[in-house]
Amino acid sequence: MRNRPAIIALAAAAAIIVNLIVHAAGRAAGGSFRFTNGGVTNEVDAVTVAGFSAVPLLIGLLVVAMLSRLGPWVARVAVVVAPVLAVVTIFVMTVPADLDRASTVALALCHLTLIPISVRAIRLISGAAARPALAPTG
Predict the structure, then answer these.
(1) Which of 8, 9, 10, 26 is 20 to 30 Å from the Cα of 57, by its Cα?
(2) Three-class SS of residue 80?
């Protein structure tokens, strides 16, 4: 696949679908996905999972797509940075929240599912940058 917008859109769609399945499994395992912040009870619902799956991934992949013309180093850096960010955000966002165990595990898995999706998309984007589409003959 050489179309970078399609790669980015498919990666975001995959992340949403996979993480909604993980969220549903977490609910089935008894997770409430409720936490308190500033004395207010909040809930991580399916819309939040979809947004937190797609938006950071979209932003990161768009940056990679725009910068990939600078050279192959962009993809090499991105395939390291993306997994690191996915893991770090577990400890910044998920672990500190007062979620129940099933919710914590499910949300941590949601972060981890972004690793293979982002790495694959980055590799496809960098391959698309290296192989420009054929010009129409006429």
Answers:
(1) 26
(2) helix
Cβ(100)–Cβ(30) under 8 Å? Answer: yes
Q: Residue 59 pairs with which residues in a beta bridge?
A: none
Return d(Cα 104, Cα 106) in angstroms, integer.
6
Question: pLDDT 10s per residue in the chain (138 long)?
Answer: 469 999 999 999 999 999 999 999 999 999 999 999 989 999 999 999 999 999 999 999 999 999 999 999 999 999 999 999 999 999 999 999 999 999 999 999 999 999 999 999 999 999 865 555 444 554
Q: Residue 85: how many CA atoms within 13 Å on its side-chain side? A: 15
Where do the domains of the chain lie?
4-129
Residues in Cβ contact with 94 at an 8 Å cutoff, skipping those fewer than 6 apart: 104, 107, 108, 111
- What does the chain come to in residues? 138
